[in-house]
Amino acid sequence: MQHAVELEELGTRITEASRFIQKAEVQLSRRVIGQHDVIRRIFIAMLVNGHILLEGVPGLAKTLIIRTFAAAMNLKFQRIQFTPDMLPADLIGTMIYNPKDLEFYPRKGPVFANVILADEINRSPAKVQSALLEAMQERQVTIGTQTFPLEEPFLVLATQNPIEHEGTYVLPEAQVDRFMMKVLVDYPSYDEELEIMLQSATNAASAPIIPVVQADDIAKARALIDLIYVDPRVQRYIVDLVVASRKPAQYGIASLETMIEFGASPRASIFLLLASKAHAFLQHRAYITPEDVKAIAYDTLRHRIRPGYEAEADNVKPDDIIRQILQHVQVP
Q1: Per residue in 209-256, pLDDT tens?
Q2: In 3D, which of 58, 62, 17 has the Cα closest to residue 39?
Q3: Which of 19, 109, 303, 326 fits as disulfide partner to 182, beta carbons 3.0 to 4.6 Å?
Q4: Rounded CA gap, 231 and 276, in Å?
Q5: How do 140-143 and 93-98 pair as beta strands?
Q6: Domain match, 237 and 167 both
Q7: In a domain, 256, yes or no
Q8: pTM summary value
Q9: Distance, CA of 69 to CA of 262 (rounded, Å)
Q10: In 3-state terms, the chain is what percent helix, strand and coil (to 5)?
Q11: C-beta separation of 86 from 47 below 8 A
Q12: How far is CA 20 from CA 25, 69, 105, 149, 222, in A?
């Protein structure tokens, strides 16, 4: 009984603390039509200190969404266009010699911001991607012999084009695994596209965005998310989903054994738990349900499961594998 009362009180606090999300969504809706799932995933990543890999063809408003999100959240935004001739110094900064003082001084690069749009990240060479990897994982940047912590919150939203691969570099598995989610950005619906067209014709897309969030709003939300209750059965359900991607035969889906080259890493379990907590927070709940886990499973697992040769031959995608895992793993 006491536990139920505590959860109810926590739920009330969560409802109050999450009001800034609705305010920010109102501001986003002034410029962005549709893409509600993408926007929700960005909020989830921000709430639990994660990063997102966005995949979609050009023209789906990825840059507009991220720029508007940063403006509504009152966060410093930087867009970095990745190119084959890019150097790590173009990202993190470099040491500049001052002839007046006869000394070198660090000049910080564009990565020193709260929200980073790494546009077409797969167009940069390995050295640049490794420099970004330190920032994503360690939340710090090393310039010369000095190490600088990055501001909080720090959120990397990287984009890549699924169609054009000429002149691109495949992201290393170690870097891909650092992204909490891989979100697929799809075309808008017919009615949404009609509204987008009319909005552009009237310059409504340039409507001013009012910052509605303070830094302590995000800090309070993160503190409450840490308190969200996770039943041991749900904990085991999360681990079952991840382990099933490695050993599907143990869960009654032996047909996937030859379809998967390798499954999700333990980092998938961690991110799936964190993302599920943030999803429950957005639903104003003080506890996680299996539905929270299912809602976020595709985005958390699809870039961590590599289909094998037979899967590619049969055109079986990671989402098809995840769908089978969700259907066969017993729900608590």
Answers
A1: 888 888 788 889 999 999 999 999 999 999 999 999 998 888 888 888
A2: 62
A3: 303
A4: 12
A5: unpaired
A6: no
A7: yes
A8: 0.89
A9: 35
A10: 50, 15, 35
A11: no
A12: 9, 12, 39, 27, 13
β-pair partners for 157: 52, 117
Whether 160 is covered by a domain: the verdict is yes
CA gap 221, 242 in Å, rounded: 27
Assess contact for 71 and 27: CB atoms under 8 A: yes
Question: Domain for residue 7, yes or no?
Answer: no
In the chain, how many domains are there?
2
**Is residue 137 domain-resident?**
yes
Q: How many residues does the chain have?
A: 332
**Domain residues for 296?**
228-328
Query: Which residues, 6+ apart, have CB-to-CB distance to 173 below 8 Å?
Result: none
pLDDT tens-digit series, residues 279-325: 999 999 999 999 999 999 999 999 998 888 888 888 888 899 999 99
Neighbour-count burial of 294, counting CB atoms closer than 10 A to its CB (0-12 exposed, 13-18 middle, 19+ buried): middle
Distance from chain centroid for Cα 298: 12
My answer on whether 72 and 179 are in the same domain is: yes
